[in-house]
Amino acid sequence: MSSADRPSLNVAVLYPDLLNLYGDRGNARTLEQRCAARSIEANVIGVGIGDDWSSEEADIVLVGGGQDREQRRVQADLQQRGEDLRKYVDNDGVVLAVCGGFQLFGHHYRGWDGEIMEGIGVFDAVATHPGPRIARCVGNVIALWEGETVVGFENHGGRTYLNEGQQALADVVSGFGNNGGDGLEGAKVKNAYGTYLHGAVLPKNPRLADRLISLAMVRRYGPEEANLAPLDDSAALRAHAEALHAALSAGESSLGRRFA
């Protein structure tokens, strides 16, 4: 097959120089590798503040995490892109928004100093920081997504609360998740996924990575592209197992009780 005949996907990474905490840039690299193994060309582009870009150019949009300072820096630019991104999601566009990006894809985030950062309302959720004297949500996370475990590392001061009717991405088994109280992790709207999981999340969760690729392939090429060729995931599954072990060893998990 010539390069001209190969299917291709465009992966846009929003603010890669500012929202890239805890290995989040590894999500794009994972998508590149898993696409390449299936002879799918993945074109990864970074979208910075002020760049001339439209979501019409994207098949998958990634946005990572950042501290309050970085979120403030990107907020105004993200607001200008809000209508475009909401239309993209409404039209089944694929999104993975992590931590700070997840918060800004909700309605708003109130920072530790009380300042409100307006979000773009993809997720029907609000986030708030309870203040610098309150402990952050830090540690390894185990959650159940569609009957299987997803794992990652969280480190966030903000707490996200989903409004009634907003679907969570997963149910927390170990760790804090969205707010440490309601047992929910992340959010999902159509093909847009929000999560607090770093690490990066996709290398340790190949099924989630393939879900994003599959959704993007179906959107661009049609339903006959829904089933991806299986890959050798032994390395990814070892990383997944090690993350599970880390959470269990730290005494953070009730996994055994959940499945007893």
Secondary structure: elements and pairs:
Layout: E1 8-14, H1 26-36, E2 41-47, E3 60-63, H2 68-90, E4 94-98, H3 100-104, E5 108-110, E6 116-118, E7 125-128, E8 137-145, E9 148-156, E10 159-162, E11 170-174, E12 184-185, E13 187-189, E14 192-195, H4 201-204, H5 206-221, H6 234-249, H7 255-259
What would your notes on this structure say?
By secondary structure, the chain is an alpha/beta fold. Helices cover about 30% and strands about 25% of the residues. It contains seven helices and 14 strands. The strands form three sheets. It has a six-stranded mixed β-sheet with strand order 2-1-3-4-14-13. Strands 6-5-7-10 form a four-stranded mixed β-sheet. It has a four-stranded antiparallel β-sheet with strand order 9-8-11-12, covered by helices on one side. The termini are far apart. Mean pLDDT is about 95; it is low at about 250-260.
**Can you give the mean pLDDT?**
93
Strand order of the largest sheet: 2-1-3-4-14-13
Count of helices?
Answer: 7
Task: Supply the helix-strand structural class.
Answer: alpha/beta
How large is the share of residues in beta strands? 25-35%
Query: How can the largest sheet be summarized?
Result: 6 strands, mixed
Label the overall shape: globular
- Termini gap: 50 Å
How many β-strand stretches?
14
Spans of at least 5 consecutive residues whose pLDDT stays below 50 are: 252-260
Succession of helices and strands: EHEEHEHEEEEEEEEEEHHHH
Helix content: 25-40%
Rounded radius of gyration (Å):
18 Å
